Amino acid sequence: MPETVLVTGGSGYIAGWCITELLRNGYEVRTTVRSGGKEQAVLDAVSTQLDPAGRLSFAVADLTADDGWDDAVKGVDYVLHVASPLGGGATDDPDAMIAPARDGALRVLHAATAAGVKRVVLTSAANAASPSSYATQGVTDETLWTDPEDPTLSPYRRSKTLAERAAWDFMDSHQGSTELVTVLPGAVFGPILTTSNIGSVGIVGRLVSGRMRGVPRIGLEIVDVRDLADIHIRAMTSPDAAGQRFLATGEFTWMSQMARTLREGLGAEGRRVPTRQVPDFAVKLVARFRDPSLREITPALGRRNRHSTAKAHRILGWQPRPAHRTVLDCAHSLLSHDAL
After folding, report:
1. C-alpha distances in angstroms, 237 versus 64, 139, 224, 232, 316?
2. Which domain of life is it from (predicted)?
3. Rounded mean pLDDT of 197-225?
4. What gap in Å lies between CA 40 and CA 33, rounded to an integer?
5. Can you say how many angstroms the Cα of residue 35 is from the centroid of all Cα atoms in its chain?
6. Domain spans of the chain?
7. Which CATH code, of 3.40.50.970, 3.30.200.20, 3.40.50.720, 3.40.50.2000, is assigned to 4-336?
8. Residues 262, 207 contacting (CB under 8 angstroms)
9. Which of 181, 204, 251, 286 counts the most CB atoms within 10 A of its CB?
10. CB-side neighbour CA atoms (13 Å) of 302
11. What's the chain look like in SS3?
């Protein structure tokens, strides 16, 4: 009998690709949605890659509530906890993002351990294994934990760090057989399955459409969403992965390099991609007086710190594809979906 994997947040960008690759590898998949009305959208998205008939089922469960999680994990062999409630929005309350992410992870772990699930793979973020100071240079690895008490941290960085730390603390006190692995991705790009939830891919869309008039001096460690799904499955099945953190970052790429890749690789469709780099002071001024949404990126201006994925290569045999391929595949996918 094929093993069954629960993927949380099936309507999400990363979750959709995890579901697709699990089905492609012969697993039965159950995925959570916050309401039954989202089931068809997930089926439609996955169906763009393969026929999920008879092998994809659904459970209604919300990370912000206890209801539904015991049923969601019943009979499941593994859990990929990919979803994280963003919450918060523009609120100044730091707990608006932190509490849902942390409590949601603990709800999944409580249910999974009670059900005797073999292993839970939790999606964290490279930002949970980064120096608190963006000025730090060099290469860091999974042994580093971001300091959640650093007052300069954005709510997102703090929420991912505290959620992962809470998960490990829970497992340290758990005496059962369930194992935990965490995967810490960088900036996730690549093809989309649907236009309903494109996540960080929107950055590429803004570049290709010309809505981004200039390029800030920001570097991203680009990982392809397909490679991210692959490392989740490897982390789920590798005997040596139990109890480990794995960074899943790709090539460090300045946004100006991304823009050049798009401009040169898309031909006529790349004619609107900006090439002018915006000075740091200009980005900070806009963030302060015109666009508060940019405030979270201003500390990253000029950041050169990178993460090592040597551990994932050594233990999991994971090898991500080059960043330029991911960026171009992402752009072609957005264009084909008319998602600009």
Report:
1. 28, 28, 20, 9, 9
2. Bacteria
3. 90
4. 11
5. 22
6. 4-336
7. 3.40.50.720
8. yes
9. 204
10. 10
11. CCCEEEECCCCCHHHHHHHHHHHHCCCEEEEEECCHHHHHHHHHHHCCCCCCCCCEEEEECCCCCCCCHHHHHCCCCEEEECCCCCCCCCCCCCHHHHHHHHHHHHHHHHHHHHHCCCEEEEECCHHHHCCCCCCCCCEECCCCCCCCCCCCCCHHHHHHHHHHHHHHHHHHCCCCCCEEEEEEECEEECCCCCCCCCHHHHHHHHHHHCCCCCECCCEEEEEEHHHHHHHHHHHHHCHHHCCCEEEECCEEEEHHHHHHHHHHHCHHHHCCCCCCECCHHHHHHHHHHCCHHHCCCHHHCCCCCEECCHHHHHHHCCCCCCHHHHHHHHHHHHHHCCCC
The first and second tokens of residue 307, run together, are: 């993460």
